[in-house]
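Lay summary. Proteins are chains of building blocks that fold into shapes, and those shapes determine what they do. In this project we predict the shape from the chain. Here is one chain we studied, written as its sequence of building blocks.
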Amino acid sequence: MNVLTKSIIGLLCVTTLAGTYYSYREHQNNRQWEQQQQRNTQYWSHMQSIYLREFDYALAESLAAPTFTVRQEALQSAIESANDILQYVRSASATMNFPSWSSYESFITDGSRYLAYPASEKGISLNPDQLEQIQRLRTFARTALPYLDQMRKKAVDSSLSDIQQISTEMEEALSQLDSVSTHGNKAFNEFLYNQNPYIPPKPGTVFAGETTYTATELAAKAKIFMGEAWNKGAGKQIVHMASGGSSPQFGEVMDFKLSDTDGKPTSSYTATLSKSGHVLQVRRKGSISEKGAVEQSMDLMQVIAVADTWMARWSAERLTLVAKEIKETSIYLTYIPVREQVSIPQMKVVWQFDRRTGALKSFDASNYYSYYNKTFPIHPKLTEEQASAKLGPKVNVSGKPKLELHNNKLVYAFPVTGIEGVSHVYVNARTGAGEGIDYNL
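And here is the predicted shape, written in a compact code that computers can read:
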């Protein structure tokens, strides 16, 4: 056997060994991944079983309740269990390689939304339609539970394909059931409407009763606000009204631009003011040159200092910087009022600056002025301790709550742990009612 033959045989042996080792490692990795998936499935199905049993138990308790107060408590418990179920359903796609549970999720979503309606009833008994919808939800729960139990048991010693088959069978079984029906239910629709009634704004009510100004006077106000952004360049420059219009909320508004004595535009900015002299928006047309950007690079703190100068000219109310975002070539700064330690995020003012030069790109105070003459509840009736007593048993308070406005209601925002994906729970600071959660998948 010559040297070349020996070399070829040796190389083949090495290649074979390497391939065998690689296949072994690949098999090990696949096995570890599958075991992790099985553990995830076992945990998920176990938690679903727990919450779904609590859901069905609460529904049964509501049907057997001797008084409407006991019934309300039971239905509220069912809603909380439904919300817990939904959190785990939505996190499943990130931890398990399963298809979506559309029927399962649909039942729980519709159920959580619907149950607030019978929970609001204060009569001795529920009406026939409400009883029927609750029974449909119980049928759903009692249909799904055996499948979840099978999935939990199979996850211990079976393959993922076996568990996926059970999942598919559960979805098929649930798809055959009658879902919660609210179509054409006038009473239910009225209940939803009364929770969040639509109140159309009256034209120009925001600045009603305020002193109004002529176009010349408004042009002077616009020039003062724009400051150095409009004071650059040679020769005399004139602020003039470019266009005007009417807004349902703000009444008559006017756009102002800068030009030379011949009427040629000398600035890319347009400032929009209300008839009463409030600066609503500033827009910039065109981009900032790369040459200028390279020569005048600015950091975040410098841009904030520039924004503070603009803010001082814009309003006498001192707003608080609550958000800073750097995105591509822009820096976005968001300011809101904080009145008597209560944050009012609805009244936000947003600035966009070029992160390279600090030049203003846009300004928007329309949200601020939309709530300009609205009185917000900023005085709580409950103490922090009284509000914390309203929290559910599954959450643990992890810090001091803050008073803030959430959906136009004064709430204590409690930082919490205990439920995956939930960072805050909101409790109405005046009534003690639950006002939702801050949820992140």
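What the prediction tells us: Residues 289-295 have pLDDT under 50 and may be disordered.
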